[in-house]
Every structure is written in structure tokens, then in C-alpha cells.
Amino acid sequence: MAARLTGMAERRMPAIDAPIFTALAPLLGRLPPDRFPRHDEINALATPAVASGGGAPIRFVPPAAVSREFSAQYEVRIFQTGEVQTRPDNWHDLFNALVWLAFPKTKAVLNGHHYDEIRARRGERLRGTARDVLTLFDEGGIVVAAAGAELPVLLRGFRWKELFWRRRAEVLRSMRFYVFGHAIYEKALEPYRGVTAKALIVDVAPELLEAPLARQLPELDARAADYFSGLEALASTRTLSPLPILGIPGWEPANAREEYYDDRAQFRPGRSGESAVRK
Predict the structure, then answer these.
(1) In this predicted structure, what is the pLDDT of residue 14?
(2) Which of 41, 62, 55, 40 is closest to 104 using CA atoms?
(3) CA angle, 115 as apex, 113 and 117 as ends, to 5°?
(4) C-alpha dihedral over 251, 256, 257, 261, to 10 degrees?
(5) Is residue 35 within 8 Å of 59, Cβ to Cβ?
(6) Residue 87: how many CB atoms within 10 A of its CB?
(7) Helix runs in 103-209, H state only
(8) Which of 12, 203, 207, 251 gives the lowest tally of CB atoms within 10 Å of its CB?
(9) Facing residues of 146 across strands?
(10) Within 13 Å, how many C-alpha atoms sit on residue 38's CB side?
(11) Which stretch of DSSP H or E encloses residue 77?
């Protein structure tokens, strides 16, 4: 990953040339390089297109006092007011803010679903499957753009060595990987073996993969938002494929060796029924 810091107390922004940070690189390049940005500095990066599931312009604000009021709940407040409570000097919250800016349509759809679920389940103790799916992708998602059907079959089938080693050149040519989940970005500061994201695989035309990032991201954001707009996407936490991200070619120096992919603790075979191809 080439993004290791000396510790979580480090305030320097991660290297924007590290592959895992590609989707955030344009934004990271506009932040102070040696300290956490202030709320006003993050807000200055937002455009009118960055809005909540309820249509309110997104603004990043300090956390409010804890309250049990419905309107004070984190996702409800975002939906109704556009205010995203963001702790200062906090990597997790900073990456969440940057994902709002990089993938605004998808974040708005997730926020809208959260709001609907919270409102529908007021008074219930259980969150429900839909919110579990939303949280899994929000915290740990990755968007995989793939030109062609064969490689996604290998990914969904947990055939890691065949995908990332034997067909490595094809992966580099025909797939792109953009982290969505802010918890994955936080883990990338001090990466460890076995970091696994939940992959949304999007089929794309080959020419999109060669386009500038400024064209790729809006297209993938729109496609991901469209996917999550349908309620069928929220039916099960197993609709998204696990992806051990340190296996992605170039994301970990050690994966330049074939034997790296023999580590079954990291590259686990799927359980019975998990390897089925999803349309």
C-alpha cells in the first residue's frame, strides 16, 4: 500500500500516490499536508452537488451533545440538515468527510435509506438487515470497475491466486479498484494482513478505465448510487463480495511474489454457497 505512517497520532496526510488513496488523491492534495484540516477547510471543498439524502447541502460540523431526540440521531441530522458531525483530528471522520466529497451520490442514497429505516423502526431495538448492509458498505466498501465478465467471476468465486497472480496482467488492464469505505482508509494508515473490503462490482466499457479519474469517479458514483437505490441491494449482507485488498496487484509490495497468494489465512476460500455468481 505504501501508506504506512509511524502511528495513528501522526498528523501528516497520507501519500496521495499510494494506490489505495487514488479516489481521494485530488482532495488530499488540496488539504494541509502536515496537519488535520479544520472544518471550514473541508467545507471549502464541497460543491452544490454534495447533498444529503433529503437534499440538504452537506456541511461538516463539530459533534453535538448527545441527545435521544429523533432529529439528533447522526444519519437523521444529516438527512434533514446536511450537517455531518465530524470529530476534529480524527482519521475515521476525516475519511468519511472525504468520501462524501468523492462519492456524493452514493453517500446520499445510503443516507436516505438510513433515514427511512430509522424512521420506520423507531422504538425497535434491532437495526435490521438493511442498515447492516448499508453500514458494511459505508464503512468497508470498495467499488470495482471491470471491463469484461471473466475476472469478476474469479473474484466472486474466491479464486484469488488465479485472479491476482495468473491473470495479473488482465487485472491491471481490465479492472480498477476504488475504496469507498472510510474504515478501510483508516486501516490503510497502518495496514495489516487480512484487511477485507466488501466489493461492489460494476461492469464498464474498456475506454472508461483509461479515462481521467475526474471522469471515472462520477460515473462509478452514479452507478453505485443506482445499485443501492433498489431495495433488493439491501436484502442480505452477503450480496457484496469479500475482497482482501492487499492482494490487489501493486497495493502491497509483497504481492509481487507468487507465494504471497498461498497464505490461506488471508486468501480464504469461500464457504459453501458463497462462490455463486451474482448478476
Answers:
(1) 80
(2) 55
(3) 70
(4) 30
(5) no
(6) 13
(7) 104-120, 129-140, 150-156, 160-161, 168-174, 182-188, 206-209
(8) 207
(9) 175, 203
(10) 3
(11) helix 74-81
Beta strand pairing call for 175-179 and 196-203: unpaired
Q: Show the DSSP H helices in 87-143 as ranges.
A: 91-102, 104-120, 129-140
Residues in the chain, how many?
279
- Cell match 433498489: residue? 230
Cα 267 to Cα 140: distance, rounded to the nearest angstrom: 17
Nearest-CA neighbor of 24 among 89, 85, 97? Answer: 97
Question: Do residues 136 and 198 touch, judged by C-beta distance below 8 A?
Answer: yes
Q: What is the mean pLDDT of residues 249-261?
A: 96
Distance spanning both ends of the chain, measured CA to CA: 30
If one counts every other C-beta atom within 10 angstroms of the C-beta of residue 70, the result is 12
Q: Which of 185, 175, 134, 139 is nearest to 155 (CA)?
A: 175
Please name the residues in contact with 127: beta carbons below 8 A apart, sequence gap of 6 or more: 117, 121
Which are the contacts of 177, defined by CB distance < 8 A and separation ≥ 6?
A: 19, 142, 143, 144, 145, 245, 248, 251
CA distance 184 to 19: 13
pTM across the whole model: 0.91
* Cα 74 to Cα 49, 78, 81, 97, distances in angstroms: 21, 6, 11, 14
For residue 209 the three cell numbers come to 478505465
Q: Tell me what the mean pLDDT of segment 13-31 comes to.
A: 91
List the grid coordinates of 24: 481521494
pLDDT of 120 strictly over 80? yes
DSSP letter at 57 equals B
